[in-house]
Amino acid sequence: MNFKSLSVKAKLSWSFGVLIFMLVAISIFSLKALSDANSQFSNYVSGIEVRARLAETVRTSVDRRAIAARDLVLVTKPADLDAEKTEVTKAHEDVQNALRQLSEQVKDPSVSDKARSLVAEISRVESLYGPVALNIVNAALTNRRDEAITMIDDQCRPLLAQLIKATNDYSDYTAGRAKAMEEQSALDYSNKRTLLIATCLIALAMAIGAATLIIRGLTQALGAEPVALGEVTQRVANGDLSLVRGADLAPAGSVLALMGAMQGSLVKLIGDVRTAADSIATGSSEIASGNIDLSSRTEQQASSLQETAASMEELTSTVKQNAESAAQASSLASNASEVAAKGSSVVGQVVETMADISESSTKIADITGIIEGIAFQTNILALNAAVEAAPAGEQGRGFAVVASEVRSLAQRSSSAAKEIKDLISSSVQKIQTGSGLASEAGRTMSEVTNAVARVNDIMGEIAAASGEQSRGIEQVNTAITQMDEVTQQNAALVEQATAASQSLEDQGRKLTQAVSSFRLGTEHSMGYATPVTSAKAPPRTQVKPRPVPEEKVVNGPRAVRASAKPATSGSTSNAEWEAF
């Protein structure tokens, strides 16, 4: 990535970003150095110094205890003995307490093994020397001075020398450790100071380099001072398009060089606009003159279309009346077909009723035959009863009289049954004859119904054809009316075009006057061509569109026709010019 190819925003962002990064890095490094120094100091104060102080306490307490034990052997007064005993006890407790704290301190993980071994050596010698010192104190308090002196010479002095040597060794080690830490701290301070100075110098060098690159980049990008660029812009805003001073010497792609190129383009553009404005003014006056003639011819065409529309309206009215008459005939034929269908249905029902009556009469005849047979059998039985009652004499006379009456009734019933059978047979024959006639009438009514249905279909087709003719003529009439409206709209559009051309001529004149206010720095002979004065269009008689007759809906198939949409007047859009 080339730094020169970056935008001003990117250059400033990179430069200040690097400076901020270096500042943050320096701050972090400084804080880290302070933290390390503080940690070392805290370690010294809380660790080494405390342990050194405890070791010194052990040594001074050991000395106090040894001196007090020796004095117990030498003094004789009870008060002195008590005082020295108290001192020995106190010094011994101090030794134990300080040694115990020192042992706890060396358990810290930061303490070296060397320090732990030295403290362990002090504890070991103290574990041997402490009991000896207490034994000397007990011997002195029990008036065994000779034994106490012997213990001091033989046991106490060698152990005391070892204990003092152990404490001195630990103190020397602590002092050496403190000196090493001091030297390391001085070395760290020197290294970090050098690194901090180097970082600051690098940040300063980068800031100077970034400032130099940004200043140079901005100077090359602008090509001149912002004040000079503002003056050039103000001259262009005031219409002064004269040569931009210094643009030819400015770096390629700079603002000043681009403004010089813009000045050249604007000079060429204004010259072209002047020429085009003159051409527009001349052409618009010619268009206005042609539109006047076109408007006159369009009015004549609108009058012819109006006459044609009136003739088509009369033809439409006649065809519509024929269609309505055909529709009425079709309706009457349909009603006749319905009446014939009803009559055929009634005759069918009569035929079915006659068949039921014939069947019932047959059943009655059969029942009458059965009655006649019963009467005959009754007569035979009565005769047999009379013959059987004759030998009985007086006893059978009453039974014979009854049998005779029964026989008489049976004969009369048989005669009546025969008469009924004859009458029913005659009725059945007449019913069969009437059923045949009814069936013949039903067939005749069916033929009449079918004939009326065919007539109805034919009348429906005639009515549908008449309706189609009526709708077709209405559609033609509508199309002519729409053509009339479009022609009138075209006439109005022509008038608008005439007005627009005159307005265009005025605008061209104003445009020429507007561009003439620019100072191009060079004299261009661009005289304004006087346009041809266009004649005013004569007032046009407004032809009112004829109202479209309302279309009646007639049952039947309709002819599908794409109706032409009228053009919208009152606008000078591209769609209107295309329609025109």
From TrEMBL:
Region span, Disordered: 529-580
GO cellular component: plasma membrane
Ranges annotated as biased composition (Polar residues): 566-580
UniProt KW Translocase keyword: no
Keywords: Membrane, Methylation, Receptor, Transducer, Transmembrane, Transmembrane helix
Coiled-coil stretches noted in the UniProt entry, renumbered to this chain: none
Family of the protein in this entry: Belongs to the methyl-accepting chemotaxis (MCP) protein family.
Compartments (UniProt record): Membrane
GO BP field: chemotaxis; signal transduction
Predominant location category: membrane
Ranges that cross the membrane: 12-31, 195-215
Protein known as: Methyl-accepting chemotaxis protein I (Serine chemoreceptor protein)
Alphabetical list of InterPro entries matching this protein: Chemotax_Me-accpt_rcpt, HlyB_4HB_MCP, MCP_chemotaxis, MCPsignal_dom, YvaQ-like_sensor
Residue span, Methyl-accepting transducer domain: 276-505
PROSITE patterns: CHEMOTAXIS_TRANSDUC_2 (PS50111)
Short name of any one Pfam family annotated for the protein: MCPsignal
Phylogenetic placement of the source organism: Bacteria, Pseudomonadati, Pseudomonadota, Betaproteobacteria, Burkholderiales
GO MF, one example: transmembrane signaling receptor activity
